[in-house]
Every structure is written in structure tokens, then in C-alpha cells.
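Quick log. Single chain, no ligands specified.
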Amino acid sequence: MYPVDTPQQLRTILRTLRQSRGLTQAQLGQMLGVSQKRIARIEAAPEVTAFDQIARMVSAMGCRLVIEEPPRERTAEPALW
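-> predicted structure:
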């Protein structure tokens, strides 16, 4: 699991996923029907990329996007002494 809180983290994760699968930007672009330049732009600025493009890219690399609520903070229960 790769938690993402910032665009910088998403940039790093997208690039790392692609590289870990032994794919070049051109190869991933070919899988998605887009140019190498488009993959480079998505990796460089995912914050201005349409969600569907990021979702397709992630899916093409064999992963999925998950939205998860953080665990709720537990309130301290009064001590029973």
C-alpha cells in the first residue's frame, strides 16, 4: 500500500511503479495509447492530470486506487478507580 497525501508523493509512486515493472515511459504510453511525452507530463504533474488518466495508468501497471478513511482517534475513556 502506498499512502498518498501530496502531489510529490504521487509523482514518486507513479514513477517507481513504472520502473519497478521494467517499463519505459514510451512502453507505458503505448499500453495506454498516448505518447511518451504524455506519460512524462503525468509523472511530472499528476495534480493537474485528469483522474481517469491516472486511474488508467495505475491499472495498466497492475495496481488499483483505493480511498481510505483514516482510523478515528479514540477518545480517552475515564479511568474507573
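The two ends are 42 Å apart (CA to CA).
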